[in-house]
Amino acid sequence: MWLSGSIRALGERLGLAMSRASAEIFPKKSPSLRPSADTLMIGNTIVDLASGTVVGPDGRRAALRPKPAAVLTVLAARPGHIVSKAELLDTVWASRFVDEDALVQCIGDIRRALGADGAALKTYAKRGYSLDIARPVRHHPMSRWGMALALATLMLIGGLWTATSFRDENPSPDAGPAIAVLPFSALSEGERWQRLAQALTLDVISDLARNDWIFVYADAASRSLADAGLDAARDMGADYLLTGSVQTEAGRARLSVALIGTQGGQHVWGEQFTGSVADLLDLQRDASEAVIGQLAARWSGPIARHERAAAVGRGAANLTAYDLYLQAAERIQVYGISDMEEAERLLKRAVALDPGFGEAWAKLSLLSYSRVHPEMTEAEMEALWAQGDAAALEAIRVSPDVPTALVQAANVVRWTDPDRAEQMVRRAATLAPNDADLLAYMAFRALHFPALGEEAMGWIERAITLNPTRPDWYDWNRGAVMVLNGYYDEAVSSYRRAPDHIEARAGLVAALALAGHEDEAREKMAALMAQTPHFTPQWFADAAGLHPDAARIFTQGFEIAAQAP
After folding, report:
1. Most exposed: 208, 375, 539, 553, by fewest CB within 10 Å?
2. Distance CA 341, CA 367 (A)
3. pLDDT at residue 281 above 90?
4. 163 inside domain
5. 178-181/215-216 β-pairing
6. CB count, 10 Å around CB of 416?
7. Where are the beta strands (DSSP E) in 190-297?
8. Is the pLDDT confidence value at 114 over 80?
């Protein structure tokens, strides 16, 4: 039979309940500091420049040391204007002689204290820094009543009482790998190449520091390891060292990078970038973006792959929440039913060990939606959708600025406040502009918010550029985005490379029909119905949570494929 709007009904029920509690995931008041002339609002974060106290949107506090607070004060006095490094050094350190490393360390301290709002502090190579003090966006935790509803849902349908009943008052941050970027070396003589190597080093550090799952040491800390061995790196806590070099010959420049594991000195990843010396700035930019795109890819990049392999070798008795999360991610990419069930068990263990692990909650939400299958009963499907919604709400509660938490929570918010949900997806994109996996992941959200259609095309194409050795689920998402935007042959090409999942197979049917390949579309449709006889266009729309406008496009393709020749 045709399943009628079950996900929308569930969303409305959750939405009504939440609206009775306050109708918003976000509070109406920012964390409070006593207002004064020294109080500064940066995005969603409040800073008391006099005391150095920083209060984030979730109420957590951090403290800036005097020098970073002084640097921030100078920048705040001229918002939006570039303040030179020399001026900052002269103003903050006055008669003392210090090198730029001290300033760079202060900038890093400020960004870490500001969290996601640290993006307001911009670096201009060879020029200085600027601070953009934008109007804050209201960003609030869930109401207590709404959180109780979400957790009750999880306890009833997912058996997660153990994950929530012993919650630490101060949950630990998401565990993740730590990387030190050693100063890139110039293998060609001349100050020009030394400056280029230094600029590339700082670019990589700055851009990597914007991701939310890899800890990146500041330049001053990493520089101390330049002449030290792996033991020193391990003692400092670094899991990986990134090295690089710049070399020129016969008018050509070559930039080489390598990632080394500190535990055994193994070569984890390496890449070379070549180009004309005349286009050196373009080569520097492209190489920096490509390095970040590869390393920051949280699911398919070289660090993620190496971490998963290491977790597999640790043995079940020694697994941490992060290890469990990594193993679940490995299982999910297989897309087999038993693999996805095991991934769910692993993720539930992960959040039981670390209830504050936002990424794991977000992954559990995504997995819950992905497990829905047309051969399930309606009750089974609704249970998984409810579990996905509740896990998404917990993700945004414990990690309000983790991009995947924002994207997953948008799935719930959109039923009652689609405009806010759309803003949450866009915010996630600004938080992780060089994370190829996240960009590819977010691109599918255009099927929920068609207004994101053009942006989603940009996200998916950038993801593929950043991660050319992409996993096949990138193509699944690209196929869906291309259907939405009317590029049906492009969609067919992508869907043919997509994983063997019911939604991807169905997407190929619709794309073939819409592209005019009706005979093949009918053939694929017959095979789909033979394998999943309860498949319907309505089920497809509900399972993928499609916006009505997107659902109509796919339904048109299914209707063409179902017609007799």
Report:
1. 375
2. 9
3. no
4. no
5. parallel
6. 18
7. 215-216, 240-249, 252-261, 267-276
8. yes
Q: Are residues 192 and 296 in the same domain?
A: yes
Task: Kindly report the CATH number assigned to the domain that includes residue 252.
Answer: 3.40.50.10070
- The rounded distance, in Å, linking the Cα atoms of 323 and 69 is 37
In a domain, 237, yes or no: yes
pLDDT of residue 550: 95
Displacement of CA 272 from its chain's centroid (Å) = 26
Q: What is the mean pLDDT of the chain?
A: 78
Is residue 490's pLDDT more than 90?
A: yes
What does the angle CA 108 – CA 298 – CA 324 come to, to the nearest 5 degrees?
A: 110
Flag whether 265 is in a domain: yes
Whether 2 has a pLDDT exceeding 50, the answer reads no
Q: Tell me how far CA of residue 495 lies from CA of 170, 390, 547, in angstroms.
A: 44, 30, 20
Q: pLDDT of 58-107, one tens digit each?
A: 667 788 888 899 999 999 888 878 888 888 888 998 766 777 778 888 88
Whether 115 and 208 map to the same domain: the answer is no
Predicted confidence band at 165 (pLDDT cuts at 50, 70, 90)? Answer: very low
Q: Could you tell me the CA-to-CA distances from 209 to 61, 254, 349, 396 in Å, in that order? A: 20, 25, 29, 21
Q: Which residue range forms the structural domain that includes residue 300?
A: 178-305
Query: Token pair for residue 339?
Result: 């693999």
Strands in 235-394 per DSSP E: 240-249, 252-261, 267-276
Could you count the other beta carbons within 10 Å of the beta carbon of residue 96?
8
Task: Classify burial at 458, counting beta carbons within 10 Å of its beta carbon; exposed 0-12, middle 13-18, buried 19 or more.
Answer: middle
pLDDT digits (tens, 9 = 90+) for 171-200: 333 456 888 888 888 888 777 788 878 888
Is the pTM higher than 0.85? The answer reads: no
Same domain, 198 and 101: no
**Which CATH number belongs to the domain containing residue 109 in this structure?**
1.10.10.10
Q: Which 8-state DSSP code applies to residue 179?
A: E
The total number of structural domains in the chain stands at: 2
- 302, 294 in Cβ contact below 8 A? yes
Residue type, 543: A
Where a domain ends, among 275, 305, 335? 305
Task: Examine residue 97 and state whether it is found in any structural domain, yes or no.
Answer: yes
**What's the order of all strands across the beta sheet hosting 39-42?**
39-42, 45-48, 53-55, 61-63
Tell whether 237 and 120 lie within a shared domain. no
CA 158 to chain centre: 25
What pLDDT, on the 0 to 100 scale, is given for residue 300? Answer: 65
